[in-house]
Design brief:
Blueprint lengths: L5 H22 L7 H12 L5 E2 H8 L3 H13 L3 E5 L7 E5 L1 H21 L5 H25 L4
Antiparallel strand pairs: 1-3, 2-3
Length: 153
């Protein structure tokens, strides 16, 4: 068997996590969120309760501010997120989760945690802890790189 390189492994993990997001989205159909909207809500949850600006969100989503604004407006109409005007700049606002969204993202986190517990059930605890540590470091580094890319979120 040929040895996989690191990038191939990451790409495969990314595709699997996207599938997990789609599966999780099905579980939360009562919100009627599209996969793109669900992804935006998940990102907004990372910045809750302070919120995130449309400009920052557009940088992470790799969408134009106009497209991001339309996406946010559709989610606002569903009562999942809300816009909070900035105290500093009247033209700007922060997008935050509603209580409904906090419940959804909490449920999603629990589903994901249960999934990963099952996924790693055959892995010895010491290796699980290494995986958690490396995953956390990898994720933190990705967020720092995205912050640099989007102008310090």
């Amino acid at each position: 068997m040929e040895k996989e390189n690191f990038l191939d492994t990451l790409l495969q993990m990314s595709m699997n996590l996207q599938d997990l997001t789609r599966i999780s989205k099905i579980r939360f159909q009562e919100t009627s969120l599209s996969v793109a909207q669900f992804r935006a809500v998940s990102i907004i949850a990372h910045f809750d309760p302070e919120g995130i600006t449309i400009k920052q969100l557009s940088g992470i989503l790799r969408l134009s501010p106009g497209a991001t604004s339309k996406l946010v407006e559709r989610i606002v109409r569903q009562g999942v997120i809300q816009r909070i005007p900035s105290d500093i700049d009247r033209r700007s606002c922060h997008v935050v989760l509603t209580p409904l969204a906090r419940q959804i993202t909490g449920d999603h986190s629990q589903v994901a945690e249960n999934f990963f517990d099952r996924l790693l059930s055959d892995v010895p605890e010491q290796e699980r802890e290494i995986f958690r540590l490396l995953s956390r470091k990898f994720n933190e580094r990705l967020w720092r790189l995205m912050e640099q890319r989007t102008g310090n979120i």
